[in-house]
Each structure stands twice: as C-alpha cells, then as structure tokens.
Amino acid sequence: MTDRYDALIIGAGHNGLVCAAYLAKGGQKVLVLERSEQVGGAAITREFAPGFKVSACAHILHMLQPKIVRELKLKTHGLNLNGPPIETISLAADGNKLTIRRHNIEGAEVSDTDKVAYTRFIKRMERHARALAPQLLKTPLRLANAGFGNVIKLAGMGWDIRFGLGKKRMRDFLRIIGMNIHDLLDEVFESEALKGALALDAVLGTAMEPRMPGTVVTYLYRLAGGLKSIPILPMGGMGSVTVALADAATSFGAEIRTAALVESVLLEGGCAVGVVFAGGEEVRAPTIISNADPKTTFLKLVGARNLEAGLAHRISNLRTSGRAAKLHMALNSLPDFTGLEQDALGNRLVIAPSRKYLEHAFNHSKYGEFSAAPAMEITIPSLADPSLAPAGKHVLSAIVQYAPYDLKGGWDAQKDTFVERVVDVISAYAPDFRDKITTVECLTPVDIEREFGMTGGHWHHGELAIDQMFMMRPTYGTAQYRTPIDGLYLCGAGAHPGGFVMGAAGHNAAQAIIAGDK
Amino acid sequence: MRAQYDKEHFRKHSLPTPFYPRMAELSQDSSWHCWKGYLSADYFENVELEYFAIRNACSVMDLSPMSKYRIRGQDAEAFFDRMVTRDMSKLKPGRVGYSVWCNDQGKVVDDGTIFRFGEHDYRLCAYERQYEWLMISSAGFDVDITDETEGVAALSVQGPTSFAVLSKMGLSGIETLKPFGIVHFPYHGGKLMVSRTGFTGDLGYELWVGGSKALTLWDELFEAGKHYGIRAIGTHALDIARIEAGFIQAGDDFTPANHTIRKDHDRSPFELGLGWLVHLDKPNFTGRRALIREKEKGSRYRLVKLDIDGNKPAHASYIFHGRKKVAGVVTSAVWSPTCKQNIAFASLEVAIDDPLNDLWAEIYYQRELQWNRVWQRCRVHDEPFWSPPRRRATPPGLF
Ligand SMILES: Cc1cc2nc3c(=O)[nH]c(=O)nc-3n(C[C@H](O)[C@H](O)[C@H](O)COP(=O)(O)OP(=O)(O)OC[C@H]3O[C@@H](n4cnc5c(N)ncnc54)[C@H](O)[C@@H]3O)c2cc1C
Question: Which B residues in the span 101-160 are in contact with A, Cβ-Cβ below 8 Å?
Fold first, then answer.
C-alpha cells in the first residue's frame, strides 16, 4: 500500500505551517493536523468578548524572518506587515516616561551621557547579534560523531564570530556572553529606568530575572531574531500571520485538517509510520513532523517507554514551566495614562521601572507565588486596527510577569486576586483604568497549556536558556530536527532556534527533511 | 522498605550484614573490604582452602551486599524488556535470566540476574547500585521499584557437595531444580528461596531469606554440611573461580558506563563478548540504536580469554602483537589451580587485520622486592576454562 501523504505535520502552529509550506513547495504531499478549530497555535486572533478580538498569545510581531516572507510569498497570501511600527515606552507613575527606539532614547531623567551610551550600546549589541543571526536559519551542528559537514558548520560559526566580529569584538562577545544583563547594564548606563526597561527584554517570556547568568544571551537572541524586522502590531492581530501562512501552504498543495487531535505517533519496529487519532483512526506517512512541544511529542505522543531511557529522562527534565500570563481587557474607552498622549498609546508600553522591580517580581515566583507588583508588556492593538473592537471601544493586551505555572494553592482560587493585582498596577499609571474595563480574560500558564497545548504554558515550548539552546535544543541527541525515532522530526519552538513568531524552526526542519538529513 | 538499623551507623564506613556475627567469629585476620557499603570478607582463613571448597566440596559466601531490587507492576515485563538488551518475554515465571543493560550510547551500565517470581513480580540483582538507573528507566511504565538490599540476606552455596548439603538440610524437591530455576520453602515461619544460580561455573545454589532468619539459616546450613567439607569463603577465592568460569566482573573487566568519564573507557556488550545477550530485533531498548550502529561499523574492543604460558599471573599486563605492537591489556588474571593453567581476560583493541595468533603478555612480577619481567605467549581460548558437566546435571550428583 502506498501512503497518500509524504509527510504528516502534527500541529498547525506558525512553525508547523511554515514547515508545511516549504515541504509542499518542494513537491511533497503534506497533511497538517491541528487539534484546535483554528490554525495558528500561539499565534492566533480570537474573540474574547462579543465584538472584542485580540492576539491570544503572541501580540507583537518582531522576528518573523524576512527570508520566509519572501520565499513563501506571504504578502501575496494576505500578510500585511504595514501595521504602524511601534516603539517602547517605559511607563513611570509620575508620567516621566522614557521612550526607547531602536537606536536612540528620549525621556526625562536620562542624561546626555546615557543617550550617547545607548546608541553605542545598541550598535555594539547588534554587532554581536549579527554574529549569532546566521545560526537562526541553520540546523545546529552535531557535537558527537561530528562528520565533515559538522566540522564545516563549526568552522562557519567560529568564522562568523571571529571574522564577523573581529578580534576586539570577539573578545567582548566572549566576555559578556556568560554574564547577566544586570551587571552588563551597570557597566554602561546611569539611569535605572533605562536599565529596568532593557532588562525586561532579556527576561520576557523566560523563568529568569536580570541577575541570572544567561540573560545577556537571551537579550542578544531577541536582538538577533529581530535584526531585519521592525516590530509591529499586525493588522488583524497575530492570527493574520498564520492565516496567510495557511493560505500559502494550501496554495502549494498542503492539506490542513483542524479539530484533529493526534493521540499518538504510530510506531512500527521502532520507526514512526503514522499517527493515531483519539477515535482510533490512523493516517500513515513515511515522515511525521511534530510542531507540538518536545514533552508532548516524546512523552505523550511517542511515549517514554518507546524511547531509550537517557533521552526520555532528558526530555522529562526539560525546564518547561511558564511564568508569563496573558491578560486581555475589553475597554469601553481609552484609559488616560499619566504623561502619555493618546496617540502614544499604540506603542509597546512596558512596566519595568527598575531592575530591582523585576527582581522583586521574580522572587515571588521562585516560591510559587505571583508577583506582588508584576512587570508588564502592554499593547492596545485596537488603536491601529479598529476592527478588533466595536466602534469607539478598545482592547488591551498585556503580558504579565511573573505568574508561575505551579502556583502554590493552584490558580483556580487565586486568579481573581491576580487580575485585581494587575489592574491595581496598571491603575498606578492610568488612574481611570479600572472604570474602563468591561470584560477581562486572564490566561495563566495553566490556561495556556490547556488551550494551546504548550506544556507548562511555556512560550518557547521549553526555557530558552543557554543549556537548552543550539545543539542542546531541546536536548542533545535530537537537536537537528530529526529525532532518534526514525521518521519522526521536530519543527516547533522546542527545536532550535526556539520560539517567538519567527518561523525559523519550521523553516529549518523543512530544509533538514528535504536534504534527507539522517 | 528499608530495614531499621542503628542510628549511629554513619560513624562506620561499612555496615555489617545479617551474617556478620558468624563471619566475625570465623575471620582469622579480620580481613574485610567494603562492598557497596557492607563489610565483605576477603577470606576467612586461607584463600587456597576456600578455593578448593568451591571446586571439591561446598563453599558458602555472603551475598547480602548484592544490590537487590523488587520490581512489581502491570508493566514489569515491558519495563525489563526496554531496560535490558535481552528479549525478556522469553523469561518465564520461576526462572532467572542473566543480562546486561546499557545507556543510550550502547555502553554497559552493569550486568546482573533477573529473577521472575510471577507474571508481574521480579527481582533484579546487580553488583553495582542501580536504583537511580531503574528510576530513570521506569518513566512511562506502571511499575513499583523497591530497594531490598537491606532486607534480604543471601548466601551463595557452591561446589560439588552443595546439593547434598541442601538435601541434608531437608530442602526436599531440590533435586528437580534445574539451572536458573527458583523454588520456595516455608522457613521457620518465614520463607526461604533457593535459586540454582551462582558465579563459580559449578554446581551451586543461592539462598535468600529475610534478615531475621539469616543466622538460623547459617547455623542449619553449617550443621548439615559438617561432613561435606562446608567452608565459609571470601571474595578472593570466588575471584579465582569466576575467572575460571569465564564470568566478567564490573569494576575489573569493564567500568560501568555511568561511572566512566573518559571517552572510550566504557564497553559495549559486544566488546565484552556478550553479543549473545543482545536482541536487536526488539523494537526498542536502551542502547539499541547505538548497538545497531556498532554492529554495522564494528566495535572498538574485544574481550578475550587467554591461556598464557608459564605460571606468573599476568596481572594488568600489556598484551602485544608479535612482541611489538600493543594490542590491549589484561583485566583479570589468575593461576587456575584446577585447570593448572595461567589464565586471564584481556581487552584487546580491534584492528581488523591483526591476527590473534601472535599474542604476547609482558608480565612483571616481584621476588623479594626485585622486579622481573618475562614475555609469555598467549593463546585465545573460546570456551570457559572450567565448566564441568555436574554444573548442569539434574538431578545433581551426591558427591
Ligand atoms: C502569552 C504569550 C505571549 C507571547 N508573546 C509573544 C510576542 O509578543 N511575540 C512573539 O514573537 N512571540 C510571543 N510568544 C511566543 C510565541 O507565541 C511562540 O513561541 C510561538 O507561537 C510558537 O510557535 P510554534 O508554531 O512553534 O508552536 P505553537 O504555536 O504552540 O503550535 C503548536 C501547535 O500544535 C498543536 N498541537 C499540539 N499537540 C497536538 C496534538 N496532539 N494534535 C494536534 N495538534 C497538536 C497546537 O494546538 C498548536 O497549534 C508568546 C507566547 C505566549 C504563550
């Protein structure tokens, strides 16, 4: 019997769709299977109150790889990247806000020295990021049993760092790469407000705080992914990106089935040969690709017992506990943020007044509590795109840290208190905020896990920390998209180079599969 | 469950086993070593006498320090099948199987015996501690794992008269027990388990009881063996016997993979001559992928049994091809009193075109603090040096 499909993709997250599109474009017959009714995974737009729509998880598009946009002709499939570019505004309770643009800053309190220092700092960091950036769209090298191809890759990576950077900068790169962002910022800046806002970028979506080693890596990673894009709030919300991707994939011939929960990967003689649905129905194909996170893929869909013990152990030890919650609020009119003009509200508003603030916020999460005063990244996407809310009304979308997955006492009993806390914090910056709220949706990491199928509710399907990156992502032995189960591949955020709406993991997985990587 | 023991136990490096009071009486020189946290005798009186008890009469050795784990549950068979290299569906209740288990890299973690008591009830016995590896291996299986090392006392009763001694003790029905079989007896209100297993390559049994019955067992056994040359032995005598029988020992003939830090210092089952234990046709077991690869690409080492000229044991000797090129190193060596041969195991590097017909051992030995060196020719021996028919005869002879 010949299989109807060359490849099955479990999950229509943006990475699964990118992978599907590339494979279909390459002539393969691809079927994508998505558990939800809607494609997109954590990159979707959905209604949370009558007439109010919001990007349910990811809300700022800042990393989507231009190569992918170009090669998949996403613009002809409806991708609109014309959302107004946004800048970061770090809120201050007294209205003394700080505006952070890519290469300059502006705001009270910031000295001229800091202004100059900022431009120099960003250029310096961007140069380092450029040394890392080429790795994003490549299969990580393999350390054990390194063949000739791997030696070339290692040499290439060394070349990028040594000659891309030059001797002096390479020394700087190697010096700071293991540092924490807290100390690095101390070397450069005076203003605590500035240090707080920059530190937030290093820890957003992670289980880290600014004094933790490895936060310079996360900071550079974020820069590397966004080097070639301008951060935007996509028109129509994040779902517009995945709708365009799905359209591209189907135009190349891929099929997509929604409401198709895969229960297990079908194994024969230790090889993946298909998938099984809850009802027992099977679909077969020689290549099975999982967009689900590594724990779901290996421990649920394959099953620990079908893996070798060491790998199963490493997978179950992956750090996947999310600490970011997402809050959506329907507002009957725009709140008045102290010191902010109305038209500034369309930007990325952050609450991270100091590094200490972030540290204190984090401390609670260490002990299984949510932050007394959480840090936030807030957007009001309905300003640029009025279609997201009824006329005259608005939606506010906030990433709130830290809200640990494993909250002591459980989320059910404490969610309301948490929401109150968030409203209180925002009200400190926008005194009339509480009166504007008509509906609140709060997605804790537990909700995100349940609704989006991401283990631990983790953004990246697993902490994006140096020991879980590159050839260690998700863990050695399965870091080149291909898994130890013959015929089974990973293509999601749990694989290199990790999450964000970037598309790189899906792209790289497709390339590896097309190249027949074994 | 852990048995209760003295709160102050940590003040001593090694714990006594349940047989310690009897063994301490017999020990002439108080010569003990630590076997995974327990006192174990090197010898009691004289290594030669103890060795000859194994081969000519009846030897008794305290096996209690052996790591013992009970594995129970619905998935117990599937769990073992995934953990060890052997096809475990072939091991029936009431039987014991020997196997090795590997890490993902196909390198041996340890070897040991697996006792299948019932459909869903097993015991694993190993030289090294294995609790952590068992726990790691148990993810995804419905099994319950208990460390029984402390609670179960065991004696190895080996030698031609061992059957006669056990019969004398009144263990009726033992004559039908085949090699690798298990029988249970009621024992003073508790239970005694006897398996026809051992590490000597001879007729022999292993006896397993709860710690509280240990001294009773010892006394009854020695009483029954009075006229059969019964003798308590230490590990030195056993070491001679196990090399004669061709049994490898973790820590001597290979370093357990989980203790190995340096590259290439671990060994695969193929490299230890244990390929017969590896069932690659199973769909999955830990190490399978690596072992398939090794099978295709070839192994780095091979373990050989050597018959060496002369009578100087080749302890830690280098083995050479044609007295020029280093071929490997001796891992265990002894003068075999029974075979009257100078025998050894050696781990040789595999180079396809090196024939094994011109092997030499460079042996260093001391005489009154003077070092001497001799070259001796070595011949590869395929079979165990010692494997008498009485080892397998059922019913066994009454020697
Ligand atoms: C709260 C939050 C805020 C974020 N904010 C941003 C942001 O502002 N900007 C940004 O760039 N990134 C952000 N991220 C990160 C980003 O959303 C993710 O990293 C990214 O969407 C992951 O994409 P993916 O395709 O790899 O995986 P996913 O989007 O998780 O897709 C996996 C898909 O597999 C499906 N699936 C899982 N199991 C099965 C199964 N058994 N059968 C069938 N289908 C299955 C799931 O339903 C899902 O559709 C945020 C994430 C979160 C959670």
Answer: 103-105, 133, 136-137, 139-141
Helix ranges, B246-389 (H): 288-297
Neighbours of A249 (CB within 10 A): 29
**B79 to chain A: which residues are within 8 Å by CB?**
305
Q: Which of B75, B83, B289 sits opposite A309 (nearest CB)?
A: B83
Q: Contact A462/B267 with Cβ under 8 angstroms?
A: no
pLDDT at A111 over 50: yes
| pLDDT exceeds 60 at position B3 | no
First-last CA distance in chain A: 24
Beta strand extents in A95-195 (DSSP E only): 98-100, 105-107
Please check whether residue A317 touches B, CB under 8 A. Answer: no
What is the token pair recorded at A176? 């700071």
ipTM value: 0.91
Domain ranges of chain A: 7-43+64-80+234-318+474-515, 122-226
pTM for the model stands at: 0.94
Query: CA dist A275 to A46, A235, A266, A282, B68, Å?
Result: 28, 35, 5, 6, 40
**CA dist., res. B340 & res. A509, Å (int):** 64
Computed over every residue of chain A, the mean pLDDT equals: 95
Residue-level pLDDT at B164: 97
Top mutation candidate among A60, A402, A459, A507 for ligand 1, by most atoms within 8 Å of CB: A459
- What integer pLDDT is reported at residue A475 of this predicted model? 95
DSSP code of A386?
A: G
Give the other-Cβ count within 10 Å of A111's Cβ. 12
Task: Compute the distance from residue A48 Cα to the ligand 1 centre, in Å.
Answer: 18
Among A16-30, A163-177, A363-377, B233-247, the minimum mean pLDDT is found in A163-177
- B289 contacts on A by Cβ (under 8 Å): 308, 484
Q: How far is CA A316 from CA A306, A405, A456, B6, in A?
A: 14, 16, 12, 37
CA-based nearest residue in chain A for residue B142: A305
Q: Which domains does chain B have, with CATH numbers?
A: 11-66+150-245 (3.30.1360.120), 67-147 (3.30.70.1400), 301-384 (2.40.30.110)
**pLDDT at residue B353, rounded to an integer:** 59
User: CB distance B288–A309 less than 8 Å?
Assistant: no
Question: d(Cα B181, Cα B247) in Å, to the nearest integer?
Answer: 19
Residue-wise pLDDT tens digits, A446-483: 999 999 999 999 999 999 988 899 889 999 999 999 99
What confidence score (pLDDT) does residue A2 get? 62
Q: What is the pLDDT of residue B9?
A: 76
Nearest C-alpha of chain A: how many angstroms from B265? 16
Cβ of A476 under 8 Å from any chain B Cβ?
Answer: no
Tell whether A308 is within 8 A of chain B (Cβ).
yes
Taking CB atoms and an 8 Å limit, are B284 and A308 in contact across chains? yes
Q: How many angstroms separate the CA atoms of A66 and A499, rounded?
A: 16
pLDDT digits 0-9 by tens, B70-129: 999 999 999 999 999 999 999 999 999 999 999 999 999 999 999 999 999 999 999 999
**Could you tell me the pLDDT band of residue B1, with boundaries at 50, 70 and 90?**
very low
Q: What is the CATH number of domain A7-43+64-80+234-318+474-515?
A: 3.50.50.60
Beta bridge mates, A7: A30, A287
- Give A409's contacts (C-beta < 8 A, 6+ positions apart): none
For residue B264, count CB atoms less than 10 angstroms from its CB and return exposed for 0-12, middle for 13-18, buried for 19 or more: exposed
More confident residue, B324 or A427: A427
For A447, other C-beta atoms within 10 Å of its C-beta total: 16
Q: Can you list the alpha helix ranges (DSSP code H) found in chain B?
A: 20-26, 47-56, 76-83, 131-137, 162-168, 214-224, 235-245, 288-297
